[in-house]
Every structure is written in structure tokens, then in C-alpha cells.
């Protein structure tokens, strides 16, 4: 039987024996408990090494035990072996082939937090809240987030299949997706037709969010309100979330971070410089809004600075750090949780909207006979356009395409009840402000 020794401070634990030699004659009850636990752990390691059906070396056994330990702490802590640590560096430093989805654990199931707009997953029809049952032919039961990400990432142009469970569907859906280079336009802005309202869509919190938002607002100074759409935004950089809130709040705590030790605790506070105080503000969220999106919506809600409209958010409010073990391996460890200005936590709870609105089309009458003279004239003008030449039609189509890049039309609004509700809230706030 092999003997392997683990050396600690002031003691030696033999791998198979129960004998523990102490350099100190007296130990506290807590020390005895810790040493007893270590003795049990080393005995399990040695038993597995000796009796397990497959021949495993000690390095493999310890790697598996570290992996099991971290995955049992919470859904976001994990062991990054050489392969996964390399993948993380590639993701951080350069482009990579992937699907364009952010995933998390919800009630023990591998769940899609949100597909990123314009990515392969989004185009394939993947939705926030979908539960991934299988990746290709491999079940995701007991699969960690890092394992799933490792399988889904790959060379652009290669394909895989996701089997998903979706609420409202009678059986699992099989969705084939082709990987591609993931490039995301994090912020784009439009105005809403006939409403003089600025619409800002933030798809993820990269380093450009605050700058682009400021630019959009400075170009649209005469608006009567702003809608910031964070639906299906999985998060990103904390400093950008803090900076976005700081644009609209002039004092107080934006978000705080609290961990086990004081060194992990910090508060992020608003500054008064350049604050947009009076302009009505609505934040759109849903179940795919997570992390940084929840900090923005929850903080603005606590400060009574914005009305939050939509559905309850995902509930991802913990802080992870990457701690290298050596040049090739590391651990991802949860060290703190985020807390909103009111003291409430986001983790596993999320942000509940002030106005809950589920996704749907706006109920409205179609083909109604137009009786008002002004509307009748407009209707007849549109009918005349239909009988114009093909050249005119093509020209009109091009103009409409150009407009759609800058304007959300009333037809678009009728397709989105959540957006329509946000517009109505802005109108009410604008009336209140004018009094």
C-alpha cells in the first residue's frame, strides 16, 4: 500500500494511517476537527486510488476532487484545468467561434440566460429561459457551466445541435446551430416614430456602453424621455453598469459588493457631475436580463429614478475571480455578492419590475374604416404609392430600410407590448413633469 504524505503547518498526516503527529503538545478542538477532516479526505483519496475499477493516478484523483468541491459550492465556482484555462484566455483576449449565448444554472438545470442579438443562437431561434437538455448527444444533467461552454465553443463554420426544453412546448426542441465568430454591437439607438422618445438598446456591457449612451443622448437633446432596453442582456463589465446608473443618479450608493472579508467589500457611489436628473426614464427587462443588467435596473429602481417594465430578471448577483494555481490551471471562485442601494440582494432573487408586462403583440383593430379627413387623405396617398412604377417601389423600400435603422415605427411598436407599455409610461411621466 502506497504512503503519500501531506505536509501542513506543525503536523504530518499519513495517507492511509490514522496516526497524526503533532509538533505542538496541545491543540484546540477546532484544530483537531480540521485535522480529522484532512485525515478522512486523504484516506478517501488513497482508497479510490487502490480499489477503483479503473487505474487512476493520484493527479487525476485530486483534479477530480477539486472539480467536485468547487462545483458543489455554487453554480459559478469551478476548476479550470489547462484546457479550460486556455479557453478562458482566448475568450478574454481575442475572437472565438461560438453560438452567442450566455448560460447559467437555475434550479440545477443548465439554462440559457439570453441569446445575443445577431448571433448564430439568436438566428436559430434560441430563447431566454430555454433549458439545455442535450448538447449534441451528450446529456447536460450534472454538467457544469464550464464543461458546457467548452463543448459549445469551437471553430467557426462547424455545427452542433442543442436539445432544449421550452415552457409551453409539449416536447423538447432540437435546434441545429452553426458556430461563428462572435462580434456584438453593444449599443444602438433609435427614436420612436411620432413620439420624440429616445430608445437605447444595450445588448451587453462591454467597455463602450457609457460612452455610446452619452453620445446618443447628446445628439437627441429635445426628447421627452428615454427607454433603455436591457432585455436579454446577460451582463458584462461592472464599471459600465455603474457608469450607466451614474448618468442618471447624482448621489448615493449605486451598488455594493460584500464578501467574507473586508478586503472584498466595496461601495460604488454616484457623482453629481453631468447627471441627467429630470428626463423621464424607463428600463425594459426580462428573464434574460442578468448580472450588470440587474444592477442597472435594480439600482435605478431603488433610487426612484426609473420605472422598470417587463418581467422578473434572472437573478445572477455574485462576484467571481480567477485565481491561478500555476501557469496552466486556475480556479474560478465566488468571493462576494452584489447588493442594491436598499440592501437587497440580486442573487437567486432578481429584480421585480414596477410594471409587469409579458411579451405579446399590442391588441388593436385592423382594417378599420377611416373616417377622419386627415387620416383618409394619408390612407389614399399610401394607396397611390402602391400603383407607382417598380422603380418608385424600390426607392421607397430603400428609404424604409434606411429609416428602420434609425426609427422604431408604429408598426414595430404594435408587435411589442412591453415596448408599448414603456412608451405609455414615458408619456405619463412627461405629463407629470410638465405640470
Quickly list its features.
single chain, 435 residues, alpha+beta, Pdz3 Domain, 2-enoyl-CoA Hydratase, Chain A, domain 1, 3 domains, 7-stranded mixed beta sheet, 5-stranded antiparallel beta sheet, 12 helices, 23 strands, globular, disordered N terminus
Mind telling me the CATH superfamily name of the largest domain? 2-enoyl-CoA Hydratase, Chain A, domain 1
Gyration radius, to the nearest Å?
A: 27 Å
Give the strand content: 15-25%
Give the overall form: globular
- The average pLDDT is 85
Number of strands: 23
User: What distance separates the N and C termini?
Assistant: 86 Å
The main sheet comes to: 7 strands, mixed
Number of domains: 3
CATH class of the largest domain: Alpha Beta
Level-2 CATH architecture of the largest domain: Alpha-Beta Complex
CATH topology of the largest domain: 2-enoyl-CoA Hydratase, Chain A, domain 1
Report strand order across the widest sheet: 22-19-18-15-14-13-23
Q: What's a concise summary of this model?
A:
Helix content is 34%, strand content 25%. The chain has 435 residues and is of the alpha+beta class.
Q: Would you kindly provide a written description of the structure presented here, covering whatever features stand out?
A:
The protein has 435 residues and is an alpha+beta fold. It has three domains: 5-56, no CATH class; 95-181, Roll (Pdz3 Domain); 187-356, 2-enoyl-CoA Hydratase, Chain A, domain 1, CATH 3.90.226.10. The protein is 34% helix and 25% strand. A seven-stranded mixed β-sheet has the order 22-19-18-15-14-13-23, with helices on both faces. A hairpin with a 4-residue loop joins strand 13 and strand 14. Helix 7 runs parallel beside helix 8 (292-302). The chain is globular, with a radius of gyration of 27 Å. It starts with a strand and ends with a helix. Residues 1-23 have low confidence and may be disordered.
